[in-house]
Fold each of these.
Amino acid sequence: MFDVLTMAAIADELSRTVLDGRVQRIGLVDPLTVAMEIYARGRRHALVASAGADRPRIHLVERLPSLDPALITPLGLQLRKFVRGGVIVGIEQQPLERVVRLSIAKRLTPHNDEPRPRAGGNERTGVAGSQTANEIENAVPGHDSDGSDRSGWEDEGQDDDSEGESDATFVHLVVEVMGRHSNLILLDDEGLVKESAKHVSPRMSRVRPIRPKTPYTPPPPQERPDPRRLTGPIAAALLETQAPSATVVNVLVRQLRAISPAMAREIVFRTTGAITATVADLGADDAATLARETRALLEPMLTDAWAPVVYRRDDLPVEYAPVPMAHLAASADPVPTPSISRAAELVEVDPGGDDAATMTHAQRRARLTAAIDAAAKRIDQRIASLEAQEAKSVEAEHHRIAGETIYAYLWQLKPGDTTLEVDGTTIALDPGLSGKENAQAYFQRYQKARGASRAIPELMEKAQTEAAYLDQARTQVAQASSFADLEALAAEWEAHGGTPVAEPGRKPGKSSRATKRPKAVLTIDGHAIFVGRSGRDNDAVTFDLAGPDDTWLHARGVPGSHVIVRWRQQGQAEDERTIGAAASLAAYYSSARTSATVEVDATRRRHVRRIKGAGPGMVTYRNEYTVSVRPASERELEPPDSAAPVATVGD
């Protein structure tokens, strides 16, 4: 959960621990990961910063990872010259962004022979930016500025790349933790890029190119309400513009600045007691509660009152947060942790500290979920962008009306007119154009806007279908009960184009996972019931195993598995008891598993169709009827044969 809340907690922790510390060692773990050893407050600290798309992060670790001396990159060379041996004089988080800046001051000399301090050196104290260039320049070689001796350390802090300069230099290491756009950027004191882990050309990003000797531009702030200042009326106004069926979690992610899916789920859970609540589920007072819980969740950013927690399932760390999260505690055991860095390390870093170390089942689930959440956030942003474009397309009609009005009142226009007033409506005119040319300009704008708007419905449908697939994938990952199920989901995710999830003993791009033919989970009176455990499974049970007259079931309106009843005899009448059991399974293998009752749709398989171009398991269906059931697993539904029907079939 590396969102703005976690980043704020990390920045506060770094300010308490490594500010005014000296960078003793720095190097690359891999091309996108930097590790450094910092001596501060009488002890060594190890810091890791990574721009890798799978696990971008910055936090302290228990021990310094193994550095790769054979790995030489332009960024690595610049860090060695300008950061190693320097002092961290400032730590700052960009407001409501996953961006933190470490400011480092260093005196470059022809022969920098400062030895490293003993572990028993005196504690140093300070605040952000407390050391000046004068203090750095006047520091006595072999001693800290407070006089503590450093002669007991081996000389790993030497800078043998110096070119004779004697002035103090300032550089800034900017760590941007933004999914696949993450980066490590070294700036000079004038804000020019010295080097970066990833180069971004103007062709790749017109707004934020990142190349050496170019000015650094921070990520532009989102033009959305600040959640720290959210009030009941503002929340109510936001909700009024949303469809009743929209989930409140998605509304918060799309409409508020810097709210991650995990933060949104916590806010909604605190407000309603469930993360699946829709706009229609909210009562009259819930907007005020939603605003209050949003401000409460972000309050530690102002007070520094962090309380890190690791959430364990099957005694394994699977999630973490800088403050207690009620929605995580509902399905995992919360364990208070001394620091947010330690919490992040327990979940983000493989046990044993080696890249080839075995990844646990629970950790793989957490990382796959994180990858899906990141993709879901991008889709939500795409949908929001399309909605904004759709709203702008309404203006096209105004352009047409303006053009027609100008033509109708050409007789009234004079050369150089800047406006046309008709029935209380003012139409802007270009004084350098004639009346006809002004009208034609409006018609051209109309045609351009109309042409752009034609593609919006198709793009919106594709984005919404992809969002539905991601919801389905997230549900199936959460409910995967075996290692094989989770591996199948990871293979499906990578095949679908998602961020690869590291796997022990396997190089990226190679898969050892084979798709197995689904087996019946339950048989009642000779009728076999199949449940899809992944998108591929859903396709297999629906279109490979089922005949046209078999029955297909799915929880209504929520992500979940496809369930098939393969009748003993094709075309026979549906059996009420079997349908009831299958519907209970469909409810159980859906995101509504914890509900008391769930509506489940059922139809003959011939009425189910794949959605062209969509992810595995995405379908449309018709001629359905609905049953209301209590969710139940196959274990709960096993014989005796005399058991009463789980549900009653109703049209």
Note: The radius of gyration is 30 Å.
Amino acid sequence: MSAFTARPRTRLFAAATVALAALSLTACNDKLGVQDEGAAQTSTTAPTSTQAPEKTGGTGKTGGSTAGNSTSGNSSTGGDNGSGGTTGSNGGKSNGGKTSGGSGSNSGTNSGSNTSASSVPCSGANTKVTAQSVSRPINHMLLTVTNTGTKTCDLYYYPALNFDDAQSVPPVMKESQPQAVTTLTPGQSGYAAVALAGGDNGTGTNGHTAKSLAVYFFDRNNNSISPAATPALPAKGVYVDDSLRVTYWLSSAQDALTY
């Protein structure tokens, strides 16, 4: 009887063992199922990492902004083109354009001022002439002509002198001819020397004392122009004779008095 009883117990124990194994297997399957779901979630998360480049792509907007700046740079380049002066209105859209336009305007003003500043012949109308006796060289007088006008004037050739309404003018000392025309800006002076008489004591012929003087000027074509200048002579007058001569107009009094 005890042997019979042991067999059913053994079978019952085996059945219990099988049941426990089945439960363990089921539990393992359940755990695996949870892990599978977790893996699924992980794979679901993967697209999220795929979306990250889209945010990085947002950085591309920054790149677009940079491109915009580059476009602005092109606009600045357009301002440079505007500096050419052909399209001043376009240049005006940028500071650079305005500056370039102003520069073009200045260039035009300078060009105009150069045209208006073209020289004219010196004459009694735009100069003041003085006559001064000098101690050296002896029997010499220095003429000083100053530009009193608003434009540059040219002293062509030499002064044509007329003492006391004489019938002729004294000859010029050819050796005194300058290499270029003497030009006077407003306020500037030119000079000419006058050899009044020959010898230390005025030993020339037909000498006399002159009381008045008229100074005539020439134009570019060697034509006498009016009005004449009438500088005052010393109160006692100046002694002149047939040796009377004059230098060309020069830019230096020292140069004039070397003849």
Note: The domain at 120-256 is CATH 2.60.40 (Immunoglobulin-like).
Amino acid sequence: MDEAQEILLNSLGSLGVSLPPGVSSVQDLNPGTLVSICAQSLHLIDDSLSFPTSLPDIMAERFKICAEIASAIKGVGYRGDISFNQFLYPSEEDSYKLVRFLVERLSEASEGGKNANKKIDGVIRSENNKLEVVLKDTVEKDDNPRLHLNQLIVTTGLNDLKLETEVVETTCPVDKEFSVNGPIDACLAPRDKAEKGAVGISGEGSLESSKEARCRRLEDVKELIEESGNLKGASYGVRESPANSYTVFEQNLAFLQEHSSKIQNQIKDLHSEGKMLLEELSSRVLESQCLQYEYNVLEAVVGMATDHEKPIDLYVEDLNKRIEAGRNDLVELGSQWDALNKPLEDKKRSLEESLHAQTPEVLDKLKKLKEVELQTQEIISEIQKREEEHSRLSAELKDQPKVASRKSYIQRISEITKNSRKQDADIERILQETRELQIESNSIQDRLHRTYAVVDETIFRDAKKDSVSRQAYRLLTSLHQSFEQISEKILATDRARREIAEHEAKLAAMASRSLDINRLQTDLDAIRRENEFLEQRLHNREM
């Protein structure tokens, strides 16, 4: 029984009910912990139900809160008898039934949440399918999708590389030593220059390694381009022999696709490394700017503190003037922004209207794409919340004490099921025997009634003529009445024994509840004192 109680309490904890420390079985539940568990469980079952998780000091408030919780539990489907005394003076049996009911209801509520999540997943899946259909329509407009996609991938990678080098060129000049090796070195030189400047902050060793890595990548790119050029020349030569042109073209196409994928991977690596270096450089620049600003502020403060010729009020007045000037500048900039933003908004609106008039399908697809992006953001935030909750529950699971293994639980459940089946078989056998005895008793009673009716009629007919028969008839009626009285007494005795057994079971249950008479007397005295205090206040108000 202790293991079953521990399983119930662990189930409550896993369903989101916080248990106080030191509670490992139902016997450890006192009125305060029982009220806290019930209040939390009712709030999880129904969000509209909200009760305090602790008992107040005033006895009247305690009775009121316990009565409200009892009625709420009755409202969510509890079939047993429940009132305030189950909370203020709990017994082990009543508390076990109540906790088991709460676990069942919380499990049903969690199943309902899972069904809602399945519906959300279905909506997300349908929106993803719609997006895939839109993208497929745009791709299928080309005659040769495979070559088109390969060309698009390579072109996109080169454009990204070009865009990245242009961004780097705006921040730092190109070193002359990289402009000798051809157009590829010229494109990659700004990236190496930026990386050189960023890595130089951390040390010369990392600079040398990064330069060597760049040189290796440049050599690989050169080799790939030379091989592709040679392959291109070879393909032109093969065109003169039409017999092998198709096979050679397929081989050349596979080779070009392989090399284009390699070039794309190297471009992506260079692009990502350049991004990392730019981010690190920008962060270092911002950090240096913040430090410089703090240094200037501290220098100004020190100058103000050491300047004895001017009072502090002049500096405060100067700062107030600067703040007011800054506010005026912000207001002016806001007005200028409004003046510039309004024609831009009108132009944007007119362009959207013209685009909608020319190609309404593109605008509809854009709206759908925006809706999908908004739903994606909501889903990502929901996933983040679920991940946080998962990490929290994982930490709580690690902190919880280790319980018995799943195999032991399965073994216990199988034993309980086996015993239950055995008890069901015994009950069925007893009911069958009782039914057979009842049928036999009814048949015997019917036979006795028929026999008595025949004998009574025979003796009564002879009793009119003979005095002996009359005496026999009196004895027969007296015997019949005596046996009826005996039968009634046996039934009454059996009924009394059953009532005695029921009363004994009730007495045993009352004895197991371990009611503390001193505690009851203390609560009664507190209620009397509160009543007297309330009566005194009422009397003072009337006077």
Note: The chain has four domains: 2-131, 143-295, 359-400, 406-512.
Amino acid sequence: MVQEQQVDGTDETAAPGQGFMRRNALVVGVAVLLVTAVTVTGLTWGSQRSALDQQQQTITGLQGQLASVGTAKSEQVEQDVMQSLGVSQSRIHDDTQIVDRLVKTAFTWDSGQAYEAARRDLKERYHLSEDEQFLKQFMPPARFNEDASGKRYYYIDTQGLNSAVNADADLEVVKVTADEYTYAVQVEVAATSDAVSQNKVAPDRVKSYRTVLVYLTVDAQGKVSGLSAIPAGGSTRHSR
């Protein structure tokens, strides 16, 4: 008599995934912990970075506010000092317009004739004589050759020289005597050189910048006296 054997297939037919989980439960648990730790760390770092960025923006804003306050206080202190010395801000404002016009007249020309016209304008408008230091040493008469017909050929034109004030003059009061204000004026002058026209070359222009210190006195009626100038120290800047 053949006995029927029942085969318990419970172990054989169990889901493969459940067996894998039982055999690798430790590994899976460690992996889950690692993923959780990395996620939490990333979120924490992102939050800290955002807070640091916000903090830096706040610091930058406060620095800007402090700088503005410092500038305002410095300007107020300067005004108080000037007022205590009897210096009038409205007078400086008026004199600044006179000084700006003077330096632009002196340093703006693009030919020998324009240079000579600027000298004449200075002499007539500000009552200067040829004996003035400014006209003798700093802005002497233009050199030229003259042909039989009287036509002048200026050295300035031969070199293709031009001059212009490059920026607003920087003006400082150095002395006040009664109604006369003496100023030191820093002027940046741009000089250019054109290609000589008769050479028929490309219009190559080389520009250089030099700083000039101008000293002058202005009285309450706007009369200018004591005009002089010297090249400021430092190298000449060039651009091409």
Note: Residues 25-84 form the longest helix (60 residues).
